[in-house]
Every structure is written in structure tokens, then in C-alpha cells.
Amino acid sequence: MTEAKRAVRTDDAPTPMPVFSQGVVKGGMVQVSGQGPQDPATGEFVHPGDVKAQTTRTLQNVRAILRAAGADLDDVIMLRVYLTTRDDFASMNEAYAAFVGEHCPSGVLPARTTVFVGLPREEMLVEIDALAVLDR
To answer: With 70 as the cut, is the pLDDT of residue 121 above it?
Structure first.
């Protein structure tokens, strides 16, 4: 029997727009929707102009959704990072390495892709999504 698809929802990450879920679980997998540097309590975009701080806040949001699904960063097999400019890569990478390294006790880091794009909000310098596998 195939596991039913279910939405993941937590107040510890920003409320999603009504056209998508924070995350979805199906078949032992968790897909986290792209997260940005929003404060979950206020919905405000934080740390304008500071990609390092935005990266940390964004990863905190990703992790909150993973945890609500029964996973954590050590269960992530792929992270996709979207940046608005190549100039922010080194700073993003520094914050990313610190956060992911701290929350992956196995030492096996997720695979990653980084792309440079226009993001939905001008104040967003970074957006990150995740794909994880639930241990059964």
C-alpha cells in the first residue's frame, strides 16, 4: 500500500502562500518548499542586505519544516540554494557551511546545487529548498 501524500505544517516556519505547502511527505521522502529569510512569528523579511544572516534564518526555517515532518538536516540528501547575485556566493557559503555542519552530526553533507536567479521579493537575497529521506 502506498503512503498517502501529506502536507507538513509548523508555526516554527513562515506561513506559506495558499498555493503551496511548507513541505510534503510521500513515500518516505520529504520535500521542503523554498524558504526565505522570514521571521516565522511576524512574517517579515529580516536582515536586509546581509546574505550571511539571511542564509542562517532561511536554513532555520528549512530545518523547522524538516523537524515537523519527522526529519532533520542529517536526513537531507539535497539542498538547492537560489541566490540573486554571484557576489553573495562566498558569504552565503560561509553561513551555509557553519549551519549545515553543525546540524549534520553524521558528517555526511547533503548534495547541493546553487543557482543565480531573480527571487520573488526584492529584499530576498537567498532562497533554499530541501529533499530528505525519512528513516522507517
So the answer is: yes
* Residues contacting residue 119 through CB under 8 Å, at least 6 positions apart: 36, 82, 84, 125, 126, 127
CA nearest neighbour of 52 among 98, 7, 8, 17: 98
What is the C-alpha to C-alpha distance for residues 32 and 44, in angstroms, rounded to an integer? 20
Predicted confidence (pLDDT) per residue in 53-79, tens digit:
999 999 999 999 999 999 999 999 999
The edge-to-edge listing of strands for the beta sheet with 111-116 is 6-8, 23-26, 29-35, 126-133, 76-83, 111-116
Evaluated on CA atoms 68, 10, 42, 112, the torsion sign reads: positive
**Would you list the DSSP string of 53-74?**
HHHHHHHHHHHHHHHHTT--GG
| pTM score above 0.85 | yes
Nearest of 30, 64, 59, 61 to residue 136 by alpha carbon: 30
In this structure, the chain runs to a length of 136
- Compute the distance between CA of residue 74 and CA of residue 77 in angstroms, rounded to an integer: 8
